[in-house]
């Protein structure tokens, strides 16, 4: 796994006179985070930085506290820069300010902090915009099929995450924007939370499909749990091709549903590009070059029939994984 | 006669305790062999070694002259060693048949272990008949009264087709009828050539059924005697190492005013039916009756341990309400339960903590003060323990009982209720507990004593109430009391005549 | 009153009256009341579609529940059941994807389940450990290992036959193969618990371990066997689950052990061991699952669903209190 | 051998030799060995940064652990501790944001914790419920309610004073206010458990409930009190946690109850009640946390971290086995 290389780079930290960067993503696993990590590591090596990589298991019960701790640790151990994916804009706001006051430059990615002055730059997709893009595409798709009303379901791993809130907001905004007046005739069901248990989102959606025969579209807001749960629920209820399913982010799991029409289309963020850009921006900051406030990484709309092809390129970016 | 069992030079150490130091035991086929000694003398330990439950540190075991020095429970069973344990050892959730044949059930298919229930119930029925027990093979053991459970233990031992049967204090929770039935079974076994080892603190029983007896003291082998040719006093001296002249050292207090008066007491389960009685200062009131006659229930209600359905309680002439043990304690009533380990003591806590448990007045504790109190009782009651910080579980039965006593002496109690106070307690400790009762009545306190040992009641009580099937059927003064009178009230005193278990 | 366990088998001693009956079957009554209530609230509740859904959702957690009931009877618990299911199920998918034949795949999954069961049982008896804390540890361990091996990513490319393991309709419209497997497991285990040495030893060990030991039962071996069987059942549940999901999902079935334990206890098992039975446990899991199914049909807010699920657990054990004290 | 618990108080009987000492203090030794091992592997481990981190992360789960240790001593458990912490902490943030003063906010949080503790305790004593299953139910319930109230969204706009509750440096670079609060709780509760009637009643009720009841202890009242105190401690932990996070996070602290229980047991408490002590529990939680901290320092794959955390729980209880059987 990734462990070997990490422990080496970490233990070298104090000994070498290389400049130390902290890189703190939410997790280091899965189809989204894995390429990002790989990109960051490769780029840091090229540019001659000592990259300290910090994260915690998805199931960690004190995750937020731990990650705030990583920030504090970076400050205390005199890192020159920190790249962090804050789990909430408010939660990390103060610590980021403390880092700034201590003279450490911060780059945020994946999500931003509240006080944007405190960080040097933000790299990545704006989740509201990504949601909006998906909402738009979905609305256009439904319009194309001549659908003017119906119910819409949503499924997420954890509705309390800020990213999920933003994506939800974005989806509705984009959807309503395209639908215009027709938006009134669509109603949104209670969003499903499955804590990354595909069987839970499957069960919940099966219930919603049973009790809402006019369910017409489902958005899964990310991660393999709800993606799979939603696809399998559509399949088990015999609604393939009748309920349209829109998702976030490429994972190989999507390929399961393409043939049977269990997925309609996704928007994907180029996480490899995010990882690489983060290190580049850091490098610029350290070299005192001019930087932008925001490095948006556009999302890409991929329809079901292109997912396989798209995935082939994408999978090259994964770190050494079994799949 | 053939030497069925020979144990020689058995030694056993537990952490901190030298339980057996070179003990010998020889038992013939077809004899009942008593094993005697004070609490903690090592009787149970010796038997557990024979049963393969503990390995011995040193010493040899021969059964029928075959070397069986290395024992395990399975091997012991295979060799026909049946064990009726001092503590009940039954799986309460299983039925009678399954308990008796646990580990040795008949199978329809031995490999898959599919049980032949018909066969099982048939064999069980046969054993129950031998025991004279009225329970059904399908009864769930947990629902049976203690005496019946005890019989099952015995049934298990004889169902083994045993060559040696060990009875470790089998009569502590049996009534007279049941004891008689047990002795009949033992005699049958004896006729069949089984070697029987019989442990009891009731010397009367030893004289009644034993042929020989081996005495242990402090883990040492004292000697083996022919029971027919020794006196009770000789045996006691061998056990205790000194003379105990008086078995029931009765002294009289000044009988004063009525302190406790009960009217029409009943419980919800119908085990106690409208019982009325009183107790005066300075007297020892005894309660006799067969096991299951409801004596424990009465005192548990009186102590607030179980809810009262009907009846009034007057303490010192005033009507009181007792809903919880705390209420009773506030009225100066205390209860020494029959189940010491289960209800009387926190075995993993220290002597000092147990003694102080009902009487922690200060929210912030002064350990030195509490220790001093415990120390005082340790000295005055002669509690044998390394220190008051020792866990109570490490003490012998008699000393545990004294800790329970100390616990209540430490409160302002005036009415001391003893439920089977000498159950499983050796002669020496018994005498000391009687002395404490004497002391209490001399201080104008009241003692209520429930006992299934009639000699004890006859020896110590000023007045004896007799119970039968939940009713009070008789009241006898000390001077008029005889075993016969008590048994008459206890058996035929109820509504109908109990069929004699013969 | 002192010993509530006793009341379970003691009905023989009592004359049976209606209140008695009511309380003895309280769990069943709760179940029936739930069904009636939900079908009144939503006509869809008793629709074929929903019944089909229900019967396809129950088997996984149901099989885990009967396994754990057997453990509870033996006086032990297993918090790692969910992780074992995920481990074995994901491994099965992996092998199926690699092209191994159905018998090999299923056997391998079951052997894996038995292996983890053996580890649990072995540590518990060898080191006299509390099963709760040991299986809490192995839960983390087993889950961590399978997540590490798969890097937390779903194994996909499940062959058709694997998908059909769970999802083949049998006769009527709402009975599927996994329902049948569940039914078979329930019947078999009910028989085992009541009519075989193995089953009765479970009750003996759970009700008085020392008595069982002194009767010459090799309790250590027995406990290990029970854990192995329970592990095998968890693995079977895992295979059906993955078949249902059509992927190998290493993060799946989290917390199933706790949930199954709640179901078993609602169905009459007790932590102290020695009591409980398979049909009761099935009613327990049906109660919880019907409840969750009903809530999903109503489309309630998922947080409210969570709160209400907690509420039903509390209500179920309170009802059980009245049953115990009838 | 039959009754390992007895060994706890019986050390007086033994002459103390070095093997004895070694085993008695095995948990402490494991802890020291861990510290040495990690500091040899990574020089960062004993860096000020890491020590500071460690001390700021431990208090939340640490305070929950000592509360749960007290419960375990009393023979009960609380799986809802994490939910109580999240509920009370989020409520505190809500009130702080609304502009209430510090004493009001903190008092309110503690009262909320005591309220939930009361609910747990009341149901357990009134209906003679198994604490495990009841608190499993209330865990779902409490969590569901706070998630529903907040709709799962973080409460924001925390005033400065609230943030400073946890995050004020005290003297040296690596000690913060929450560490001090934790230390104060540990000292106070150690005193309470050893030197007050309340504490000794916990041991009495836990080691033999019936004997305690028949000694005139109102065990029902006592158990409710213990749950209320434990709830208050969980609430305190929740407040410090939210202060640390600078938001009111209703989904936070999930599973803390189980983890705290593991720590308490590693530190010498037992499910059966009557044994365990606060300093031991602190060592237990330190062992687990140092281990997790060390793994994070080594930058291990997070799944491996999870697996190894499970491993350390297993190792800790096995070491404890040797301690028990010294
Ligand atoms: N498992 C054990 N661990 C430590 N000490 C023990 C153990 N079992 C017995 N002992 C000690 O060994 C000694 C002998 O105990 P044993 O139970 O054999 O006495 P006994 O003669 O049967 O007494 P009683 O008449 O009270 O039943 C006692 O001091 C007892 O405390
Ligand atoms: N609810 C119950 N379920 C099962 N057994 C019980 C129950 N209540 C009492 N027993 C047992 O039945 C036996 C006889 O009951 P009870 O206590 O009424 O008799 P007693 O007159 O006090 O007899 P003893 O001489 O043993 O004190 C006791 O050993 C008791 O443990
Ligand atoms: Mg004995
Ligand atoms: Mg009695």
Automatic annotation (TrEMBL), chain B:
It comes from the Bacteria. This is Sugar ABC transporter ATP-binding protein. Residues 5-243, 250-494 form the ABC transporter domain. InterPro entries: AAA+_ATPase, ABC_carbohydrate_import_ATPase, ABC_transporter-like_ATP-bd, ABC_transporter-like_CS, P-loop_NTPase. Keywords: ATP-binding, Cell membrane, Membrane, Nucleotide-binding, Repeat, Sugar transport, Translocase, Transport. SUPFAM superfamilies: P-loop containing nucleoside triphosphate hydrolases. The lineage of its organism: Bacteria, Bacillati, Bacillota, Negativicutes, Selenomonadales. The keyword Transport applies. CDD domains: ABC_Carb_Monos_I, ABC_Carb_Monos_II. One of its GO terms (molecular function) is ATP binding.
From TrEMBL, chains C, D:
Pfam families: BPD_transp_2. It is found in: Cell membrane. Keywords: Cell inner membrane, Cell membrane, Membrane, Transmembrane, Transmembrane helix, Transport. It is a multi-pass membrane protein. Its main location: membrane. InterPro entries: ABC_transp_permease. The chain crosses the membrane at residues 21-42, 54-72, 79-97, 103-125, 132-154, 174-193, 226-247, 303-322. This is ABC transporter permease.
């Amino acid at each position: 796994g990734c462990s070997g290389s990490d422990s080496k780079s970490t233990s070298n930290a104090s000994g070498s006179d290389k400049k130390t960067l902290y890189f703190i993503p939410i997790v280091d696993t899965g189809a989204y985070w894995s390429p990002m990590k790989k990109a960051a590591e490769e780029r840091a090596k090229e540019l001659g930085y000592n990259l300290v990589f910090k994260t915690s298991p998805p199931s960690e019960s004190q995750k937020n506290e731990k990650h705030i701790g990583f920030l504090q640790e970076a400050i205390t151990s005199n890192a020159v820069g920190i790249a962090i994916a804050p789990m909430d804009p408010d939660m990390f706001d103060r610590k980021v300010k403390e880092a700034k006051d201590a003279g450490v430059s911060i780059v945020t990615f994946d999500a931003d902090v509240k006080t944007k002055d405190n960080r040097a730059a933000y790299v990545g997709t704006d989740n509201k915009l990504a949601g909006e893009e998906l909402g738009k595409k979905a609305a256009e798709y439904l319009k194309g099929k001549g659908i003017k009303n119906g119910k819409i379901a949503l499924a997420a791993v954890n509705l309390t995450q800020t990213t999920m809130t933003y994506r939800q907001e974005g989806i509705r905004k984009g959807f309503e924007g395209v639908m215009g007046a027709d938006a009134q005739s669509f109603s949104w069901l209670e969003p499903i939370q499955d804590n990354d248990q595909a069987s839970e989102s499957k069960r919940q959606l099966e219930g919603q499909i049973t009790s809402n025969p006019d369910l017409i579209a489902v958005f899964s807001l990310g991660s393999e749990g709800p993606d799979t749960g939603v696809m399998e629920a559509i399949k088990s209820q015999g609604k393939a091709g009748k309920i349209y399913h829109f998702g976030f982010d490429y994972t190989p799991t999507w390929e399961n549903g393409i043939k049977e029409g269990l997925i309609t289309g996704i928007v994907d963020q180029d996480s490899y590009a995010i990882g690489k850009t983060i290190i580049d921006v850091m490098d610029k900051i350290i070299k005192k070059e001019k930087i932008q406030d925001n490095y948006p990484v556009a999302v890409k709309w991929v329809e079901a029939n292109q997912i396989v092809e798209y995935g082939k390129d994408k999978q090259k970016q994964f770190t050494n994984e079994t799949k | 006669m053939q030497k069925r069992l020979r144990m020689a030079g058995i030694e056993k150490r537990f952490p901190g305790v030298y339980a057996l130091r070179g003990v010998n035991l020889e038992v013939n086929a077809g004899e009942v062999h008593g094993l005697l000694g004070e609490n903690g003398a090592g009787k149970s330990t010796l038997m557990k070694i024979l049963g393969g439950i503990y390995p011995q540190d040193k010493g040899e075991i021969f059964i029928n002259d075959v070397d069986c020095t290395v024992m395990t429970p399975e091997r012991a069973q295979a060799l026909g060693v049946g064990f009726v344990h001092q503590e009940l050892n039954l799986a309460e959730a299983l039925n009678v048949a399954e308990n008796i044949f646990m580990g040795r059930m008949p199978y329809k298919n031995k490999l898959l272990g599919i049980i032949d229930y018909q066969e099982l119930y048939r064999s069980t029925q046969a054993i129950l008949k031998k025991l004279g027990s009225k329970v059904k093979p399908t009864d769930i053991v947990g629902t049976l009264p203690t005496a019946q459970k005890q019989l099952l233990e015995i049934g298990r031992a004889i169902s083994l087709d045993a060559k040696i049967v060990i009875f470790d204090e089998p009569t502590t929770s049996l009534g007279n009828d049941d004891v008689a039935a047990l002795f009949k079974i033992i005699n049958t076994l004896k006729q069949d050539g089984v070697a029987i080892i019989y442990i009891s603190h009731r010397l009367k029983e030893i004289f009644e059924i034993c042929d020989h007896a081996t005495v242990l003291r402090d883990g040492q082998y004292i000697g083996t005697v022919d029971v027919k040719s020794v006196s009770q006093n000789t045996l006691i001296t061998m056990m205790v190492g000194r003379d105990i002249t008086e078995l029931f050292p009765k002294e009289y207090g000044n009988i004063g005013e009525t302190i406790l008066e009960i009217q029409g007491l009943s419980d919800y389960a119908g085990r106690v039916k409208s019982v009325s009685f009183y107790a005066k200062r300075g007297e020892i009131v005894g309660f006799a009756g067969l096991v299951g006659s409801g004596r424990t229930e009465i005192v548990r209600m009186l102590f607030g341990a179980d809810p009262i359905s009907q009846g009034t309680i007057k303490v010192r002439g005033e009507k009181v309400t007792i809903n919880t043990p705390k209420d009773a304690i506030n009225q100066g009533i205390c209860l020494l339960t029959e189940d010491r380990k289960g209800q009387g003591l926190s075995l993993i806590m220290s002597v000092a903590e147990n003694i102080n448990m009902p009487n922690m007045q200060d929210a912030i504790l002064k350990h030195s003060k509490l220790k001093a109190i415990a120390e005082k009782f340790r000295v005055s009651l002669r509690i044998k323990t390394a220190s008051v910080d020792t866990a109570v579980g490490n003490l012998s039965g008699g000393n545990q009982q004294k800790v329970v006593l100390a616990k209540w002496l430490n409160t302002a109690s005036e009415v001391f209720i003893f439920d089977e106070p000498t159950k499983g307690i050796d002669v020496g400790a018994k005498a000391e507990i009687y002395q404490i009762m004497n002391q209490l009545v001399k201080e104008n306190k009241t003692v209520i004593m429930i006992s299934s040992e009639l000699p004890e009641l006859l020896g110590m009580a000023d007045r004896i109430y007799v119970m039968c099937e939940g009713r009070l059927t008789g009241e006898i003064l000390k001077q008029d009391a005889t075993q016969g009178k008590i048994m008459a009230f206890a058996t035929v005193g109820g509504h109908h005549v109990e069929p004699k278990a013969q | 009153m002192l010993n509530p366990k006793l009341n379970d088998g003691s009905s023989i001693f009592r004359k049976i009256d209606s209140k008695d009956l009511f309380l003895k079957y309280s769990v069943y009554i709760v179940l029936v009341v739930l069904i009636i209530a939900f079908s009144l609230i939503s006509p869809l509740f008793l629709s074929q579609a929903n019944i089909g859904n229900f019967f396809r959702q129950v088997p996984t957690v149901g099989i885990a529940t009967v396994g754990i009931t057997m453990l509870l009877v033996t006086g032990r618990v297993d918090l790692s059941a969910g992780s074992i299911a995920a481990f074995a199920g994901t491994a099965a998918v992996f092998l199926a994807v690699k092209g191994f034949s159905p018998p090999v795949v299923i056997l391998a999954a079951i052997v894996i389940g038995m292996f983890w069961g053996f580890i649990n049982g072995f540590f518990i008896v060898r080191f006299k450990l509390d099963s709760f804390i040991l299986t809490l540890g192995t839960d983390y361990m087993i889950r961590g290992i399978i997540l590490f091996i798969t890097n937390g990513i779903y194994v996909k490319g499940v062959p058709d036959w694997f998908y059909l393991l769970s999802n083949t309709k049998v006769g009527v419209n709402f009975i599927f193969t996994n329902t049948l497997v569940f039914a078979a497991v329930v019947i078999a285990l009910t028989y085992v618990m009541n009519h075989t040495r193995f089953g009765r030893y479970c009750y003996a060990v759970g009700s008085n371990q020392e008595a069982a030991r002194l009767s010459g039962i090799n309790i250590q071996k027995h406990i290990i066997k029970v854990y192995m069987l329970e592990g095998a059942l968890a693995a079977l549940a895992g295979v059906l689950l993955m078949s249902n999901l059509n992927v190998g999902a290493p993060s799946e079935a989290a917390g199933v052990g706790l949930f199954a334990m709640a179901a078993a206890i609602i169905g009459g098992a007790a932590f102290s061991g020695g009591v409980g039975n398979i049909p009761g446990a099935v009613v327990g899991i049906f109660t919880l699952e019907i409840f969750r199914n009903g809530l999903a049909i109503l489309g309630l807010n998922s947080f409210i669903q969570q709160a209400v699920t907690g509420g039903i657990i509390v209500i179920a054990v309170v009802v059980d209190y009245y049953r115990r004290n009838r």
